[in-house]
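Field log, afternoon session.

UNIT: design team B
ACTIVITY: writing a sequence onto a fixed backbone
BACKBONE:
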């Protein structure tokens, strides 16, 4: 072999080991000894490929492996077409978003019963219904609501798989999906107030009207922001943009959840008059910092570690905000328009979560048209980056909702 080939192989090896290491880090989890004759192994080998894939995507294999060491499980496995074609595409997209992994897990666990349920016992006993593995779900499964098409399809010593016609959707998951959809349609028609700029200070004119700062949680988190220090500008904007605070309060009191990416005072001070003077601009900026999900620093950090880059919906439709792991923290946005999560969990009450960031974020479309924006692709790409990209595509494509 000549030198060139060695060089190429070395590069390949280097790239492979780097990415291999990343991969290992991502999936490294101590796993209990699993019997090759287990119903779980059988599921992964079975013709229920859609279900198997989702179980893996939902990170359920490990907990299920632990479960079958303690008790049998019965899996009601929807046929592939039910998961592939019959599901509402919007619902399926919802399930596959990284932020909704709990919903995906709950949906899958709703198809599993922590006991050995033979087909005959399922049908011959009256009132024989079964609690599922889906946490918090009171609805039980019984022979009547299951629509079994392949009874006792796979029988193993630690469990049974029955093929079913349709996907079973637990109420809690349907509810989460409905909430999300409603939130989208509400936020699509939010009224746009026209803010005023004070010509002397070039800052937003303070609204003289007394503020019914929305429902208590919104008031609480604004107060927490003020107490925390370093977030006065944002708190002022929220207080003074009454329609926004009221809207947030209303949404939260109706059961929606929100994550506020809160730019600190230094970041807010960098906003120019131009950026604020367009009618509705402050609202637009704020809506881009509101994520219609409840995320804590931990949940976001875990997601970016697992998925690399991902996108969160914002209330500024249809724009999403990109997040990725950087320097042991979560970084939002692109290049110079990016911001780090610097003050985690400033406020978290289960409905509203406030995460402090060190920059004001703009949708990438806005950055592109901004006069002094740097090119989005830096010139410091490493020589093997193409191969690296190729490998990361290969390794990461098992993930959900790849950054695109
Ligand atoms: C599963 O069910 C079989 C058959 O009833 C039983 O022999 C076995 O002990 C059960 N496994 C566990 C882990 O309970
Ligand atoms: C399930 O069975 C229990 C008793 O075994 C009964 O009280 C309950 O009503 C049943 N639920 C359904 C939905 O059939
Ligand atoms: C109506 C209202 O609460 N306006 C507030 C706007 O922000 C200033 C702080 O700069 C507050 O003092 C005002 O009370």
């Amino acid at each position: 072999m000549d030198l060139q080939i060695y060089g190429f192989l070395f590069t390949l090896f280097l790239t492979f080991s780097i990415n291999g290491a990343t991969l290992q880090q991502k999936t490294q989890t101590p796993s209990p000894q699993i019997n090759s004759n287990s119903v779980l192994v059988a599921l992964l080998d079975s013709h229920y490929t859609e279900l198997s894939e989702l179980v893996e995507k939902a990170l359920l294999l490990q907990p299920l492996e632990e479960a079958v060491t303690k008790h049998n499980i019965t899996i009601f496995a929807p046929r592939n077409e039910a998961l592939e074609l019959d599901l509402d595409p919007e619902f399926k997209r919802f399930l596959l978003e990284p932020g909704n992994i709990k919903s995906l897990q709950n949906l899958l666990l709703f198809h599993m019963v922590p006991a050995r349920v033979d087909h005959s016992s399922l049908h011959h006993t009256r009132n024989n219904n079964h609690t599922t593995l889906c946490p918090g779900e009171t609805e039980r499964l019984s022979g009547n609501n299951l629509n079994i098409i392949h009874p006792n399809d796979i029988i193993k010593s630690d469990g049974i798989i029955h093929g079913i016609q349709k996907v079973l959707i637990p109420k809690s998951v349907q509810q989460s999906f409905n909430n999300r959809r409603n939130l989208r349609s509400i936020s699509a028609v939010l009224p746009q107030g026209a803010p005023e700029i004070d010509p002397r200070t070039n800052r937003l004119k303070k609204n003289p009207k007394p503020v019914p700062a929305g429902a208590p949680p919104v008031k609480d988190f604004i107060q927490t922001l003020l107490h925390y220090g370093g977030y006065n500008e944002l708190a002022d904007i929220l207080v003074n943009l009454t329609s926004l605070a009221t809207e947030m309060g209303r949404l939260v009191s109706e059961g929606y959840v929100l994550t506020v990416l809160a730019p600190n005072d230094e970041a807010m001070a960098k906003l120019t008059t131009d950026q604020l003077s367009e009618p509705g601009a402050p609202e637009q900026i704020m809506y881009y910092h509101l994520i219609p999900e409840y995320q804590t620093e931990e949940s976001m950090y875990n997601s970016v570690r697992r998925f690399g880059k991902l996108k969160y919906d914002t209330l500024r439709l249809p724009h999403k905000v990109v997040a990725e792991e950087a320097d042991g923290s979560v970084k939002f946005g692109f290049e110079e328009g990016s911001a780090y999560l610097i003050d985690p969990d400033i406020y978290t009450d289960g409905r509203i979560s406030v995460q402090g960031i060190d920059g004001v974020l703009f949708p990438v479309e806005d950055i592109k048209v901004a006069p002094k924006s740097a090119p989005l692709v830096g010139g410091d790409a490493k020589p093997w980056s193409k191969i690296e990209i190729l490998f990361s595509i290969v390794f990461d494509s098992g993930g959900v909702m790849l950054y695109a």
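LOG NOTE: The chain has three domains: 1-30+377-404, 33-172, 190-373.
NEXT ACTIVITY: expression trials, pending approval
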